[in-house]
Amino acid sequence: MVxxxxxxxxxxxxxxxxxxxxxxxxxxxxxxxxxxxYLPIASNPDQPRxxxxxxxxxxxxxxxxxxxxxxxxxxxxxxxxQTVILLLIQIGGLGLVTITTFFxxxxxxx
Length: 110
What we know:
Blueprint: E1 4-7, E2 13-16, H1 18-38, H2 52-63, H3 73-76, H4 79-94, H5 96-107
Antiparallel strand pairs: 1-2
């Protein structure tokens, strides 16, 4: 089994199996999407400010390509917010596994 190892300045080595890398990247994309959707620029100025939990749910649903929403996407989100949701759908649709494998393949030292 191939493991990705990180060595820190204090000589501590952390090794990650591919499954852990995939799960951590999936979580990272969802957290990134949640934070960006929570920004004021992502919401429509005519709508009330969205709660972080709603932004987290929207980012998770978009990344998992489930289509679930807690707010009306056309009304709540600005064009920037809709673009972020579209990017999350694309990342989830392409498959985070594919993207992670791609970067893993090119990050291996030969």
